[in-house]
Amino acid sequence: MSGVWVFDKNGVARLVTNPTRESFEQKEPPFPGTATAPGARPRLLVYLPENQVIRSYTELEQRLNQLGWSRYHNYQHPSLIQFHKSDNSSHLLSLPKSFANFKSFHFYDIVVKNRSFFEVREA
Fold first, then answer.
1. Please, which residues bridge with residue 6 across strands?
2. 22-61 pLDDT, tens per residue?
3. What distance in Å separates the CA atoms of residue 90 and residue 86, rounded to the nearest whole number?
4. Contact between residue 47 and residue 54 where contact means Cβ atoms under 8 Å apart
5. What is the DSSP letter of 74?
6. Global confidence as pTM
7. What InterPro entries does the record point to (predicted)?
């Protein structure tokens, strides 16, 4: 474990690997759910045909519907929103119920399953 141990005002320590100035100054990511580590640059999901940054489920669901995805109601996992491509496909997107809880791997999952329509960019 290499890095720097940082203590917050409550005396709780956390290990910061690969420290940067921003990792010490920044407590919360500027865009909720987009930074994966302290000091990491936030990531944005971009719909390529219109160069549109996706900032809400409304925008995401609209774009996914245009690409043939539909919402899959799975009552066994109420904390997730799921989309499936079609009844004949095994493609399934499982995303957190709150858009603010999106992480980079959720963005990349969308990109991998829709390669020519979405891209992840640094903010």
1. 14
2. 555 555 545 444 445 556 678 899 999 999 999 999 999 9
3. 8
4. yes
5. -
6. 0.66
7. FPF1 (IPR039274)
